[in-house]
Each structure stands twice: as structure tokens, then as C-alpha cells.
Amino acid sequence: NRWRIFQILDAASKDKRGSPNTNAGANSPSSTKTRNTSKSGKNFHYITILRDPVSRYLSEWRHVQRGATWKASLHVCDGRPPTSEELPSCYTGDDWSGCPLKEFMDCPYNLANNRQVRMLSDLTLVGCYNLSVMPEKQRNKVLLESAKSNLKHMAFFGLTEFQRKTQYLFEKTFNMNFISPFTQYNTTRASSVEINEEIQKRIEGLNFLDMELYSYAKDLFLQRYQFMRQKEHQEARRKRQEQRKFLKGRLLQTHFQSQGQGQSQNPNQNQSQNPNPNANQNQNLMQNLTQSSRQKENRESLKQNSGKEQKDNTSNGTNDYIGSVEKWR
């Protein structure tokens, strides 16, 4: 499984967070710094994969419809699980299998709503699942800002809708390569669900925090991707310049050696009329090599400048990421 590496890193993070059945949002640290140290002394990194909120919501509904439950999740927050009053159930019985989409959307306690923000934020900042601690508007703002901050400080995150870019960014960040390229599947269980515009808008409304987080994540993700591409191009350019410099030196060395051999074969030749008959030839050779090198560098500079505006507009999130990657390495 190509995502096995994520499962391994996630298992390591559970050593820090606690029980593998606890809610990630409930026990997530106030700031998921790029590198943390577990009790075993090993370093690990927080990473995640985000998905378009509407597709993710429909996918979870289909999952629940087939009989999936979250009963094993303890939702422990600040050392305790929520009470039944704080987190009521959306259904009675063993599961919620066969539930219609409308019933799924109608439950006000459905944890599918804004799940990505809740899983990424520090719930202790808002009193965990106790909704009476602060007004709803303030609670939503705190959760969203916490999720954004934690995402920004992660060593890596990807987007389901950008599989190839996710692979590229992961490989460049951690300096490792997957065996095969990721595949972008456009047909999923969620995409097979036909919904009208009204239901689309309602799902977006139920997941308005996730919608804002995903917009932020997409922008940050593409900035990180662009930064890595520019860094790769700069490194390739540096290597080409070094190679040209090396070849230039070898060419000059070969040229001067051939000159010396020619002069040694004609030691009695009269040089009074031109003490250095090859001076002009050497000078022209140097000028041609220098001019050719400059022309190539100018062409590369034009290519680099085409993306300069995007680079100049890089947000603080990307700057934090750059520093985080350098520290990790």
C-alpha cells in the first residue's frame, strides 16, 4: 500500500497522543510542530491528507450507510470522554445502516459535519465537546484558527484531489521515492452520488468550516509545491553551470596542450614577427565560450523570472514550511 508510510508515521504519533482509539482532534497538541519526540525517544512528524469537504461528507455517508460506526472512538478530550448530553447519538440500535442522505444531514450532532477542522484543531481551547463554554460563533472561529495553525506547522500535508502533486511534495520533503506514481481516481463512491444544487449548498453549509479550511489548505499546498519546483529548477541550473565550467576547463586544457605540442615540433620557427601567434585565437576561444555560457544563463533566467511574481507573493505559511523542512533535514 503506497500510503503505508503514512500509517507508520500515524502509529508513531499515537505513541504521543495516547490511545489509538482516541479522537485525533481531541488530543491534538496546541501546535503540531514539524518534529516531535515520543516517549521512546524517536522523532516523528505530523502529516495528514485533506479532501474536498463535499466529497468527503458524501463518502462518509455512504460508509455509514453500509453499516460503519465510530463506537470504538472514545473521543477523549482533556482526559475524559464526552457525556451523552455533550455528544448525543444520531441513531438508536447497533448502527445507522441504510440511512437516507436527508436523515444523515438532519442530525445536528453528526460528527461528519466539519470533521476535518475538528480533527486538526485543539478542542481543549473551546472546552472540548461542552458547547456551553463559549458562544458558537467564537467557538467556530477558535477551532478554525487552531486547525489552520496546526496544518501550517505540519511537516507535510497532501490533498486527495492532487495525487501526483501530493506524491511529488512528499518525496521532495522527506527525500524518499515511492515505487510507482500515484493514480488520480476520478470515480469514487462519493462521485457516484447524484445530488442537486440545493443539496450541494446544504452540505457546504453544514461543513462551512471545512470549506474554509480546504480553501486555505489548497492555497498553501500549491505554494509549497511551487516552492519545491523552483528549488528543483535552481538546483538543476546550478549543476548545469558546474558542468559547463568543468567542460570549459577541459576544453581549454586540451587546446593549450595541442598548442604546446605544435610548438615543440617546430622549435626553430621564427617568431620575431609574431611572438604569440595564437594569442588572438585563444582570446576568441575564451570570448566564444563566455558568450555561449552567458546566453544559456540568460535563457534560464527568463524562465525563472516567469514564476518570480508567484514566488514574491509566497505567504508566511510557506516561509514557515521552508524553515520546517530545513530543520527536519
UniProtKB/TrEMBL annotation:
Swiss-Prot/TrEMBL catalytic activity: alpha-D-glucosaminyl-[heparan sulfate](n) + 3'-phosphoadenylyl sulfate = 6-sulfo-alpha-D-glucosaminyl-[heparan sulfate](n) + adenosine 3',5'-bisphosphate + H(+)
MF terms in GO: heparan sulfate 6-sulfotransferase activity
Nucleus as UniProt keyword: no
Disordered, as annotated region: 14-39, 256-329
A single cellular component GO annotation: Golgi apparatus
Database matches in Pfam families: Sulfotransfer_2 (PF03567)
Assigned keywords, A-Z: Glycoprotein, Membrane, Signal-anchor, Transferase, Transmembrane, Transmembrane helix
Chief place of localization: membrane
Compositional bias of kind Polar residues: 19-39
Localization of this protein: Membrane
Family indicated by similarity: Belongs to the sulfotransferase 6 family.
The protein's name: Heparan-sulfate 6-O-sulfotransferase
